[in-house]
Amino acid sequence: MVNPETGTLYLHPDRNLALELVRATEAAAIRAVPFIGKGDKNGADGAAVDAMRKFLGTVDFDGLVVIGEGEKDNAPMLYNGEHVGTGHGPACDIAVDPIDGTSLTAAGRQNAISMIAVSDRGTMLDASSVFYMQKIVAGAEGHGVLDIRQSIGDNIREFAKAKGKPVGEIVVAVLDRPRHEELIEDIRATGAGTRLMLDGDVAGGINAALYGTRIDMCVGVGGSPEGVATACAIKALGGFIQTMLYPKTDLERERGLAAGLKFDHVYDADSLVTSDNTFFVATGVTDGGLVNGVKRLGPIIRTESIVLRSHSGTIRRVSADHLAEKWLD
What we know:
Blueprint (H helix, E strand, L loop, with lengths): L14 H18 L8 H16 L5 E6 L2 H4 L9 E2 L6 E10 L1 H6 L5 E8 L11 E7 L13 H12 L7 E5 L5 H9 L3 E5 L3 H9 L7 E7 H14 L2 E6 L4 H9 L8 E2 H4 L6 E6 L10 E3 L2 E10 L4 E10 L6
Parallel strand pairs: 1-3, 6-7, 6-8
Antiparallel strand pairs: 1-2, 3-4, 4-11, 5-8, 5-9, 9-10, 11-13, 12-13, 13-14
């Protein structure tokens, strides 16, 4: 099969690509470290963007940035529509966030990650014209049980039955935002507990789908780009995700309609990302529930990453030690 854009042989991304991509998230995380707790989120983001783009430029693939930095940060690099990689090898859609949690990094708080999601070319939903979406994410027990259109109380009670747990043991992750005050009250009214996140609902969604974590569900309104990236991970975990676009203005709705997006419509994992061959790679910037943050251990810089692939259904954790002298400017 030929890639119509480049005229080259179209290949599907394979397992080797994941190991190349993790080098890019490691680089972004390492370069962000000097900014942790320094109050400069733009400096942290700029350093991470530059490092990630440089490493992506060495990877043998033709990556089209479907979800990048430009829409929210007016960034000159890793913007929507930019091609990255050598141009040889598989043609892919990619979603990047050199730091998911720039405010967390600047404040020295937990759960900041560097992430990349990848799927076959033309399979990733471009929801950039509508910045927010309502989401519900959980593990495999959510299939056939959860429905984003029903009340949070009904969802929690039905999900507790499916998991064989008392409602009082269910923990729901929610971004700590004024828009979620009523949602948080409704969750607690069922007897379930909340895990309030300052930022980073990608990690929250993945933790909800991972086996053995303390989070059972992740709900609420968050970024549409993050929702699509999360779907790449959820497909690798066999988990559950449903989303609905959440326009804040009539103009945003009009832009979404012009882009072919659907409102009052439930997007599931297969409609957010139609490929069955997805990757999700994340490296910890600061310590968190998903991965540990970057640590300096004498002459060594240690990173921890998670690599998910839907085609094989594998979850790999990658711990790497880097000679610090190689990272000196």
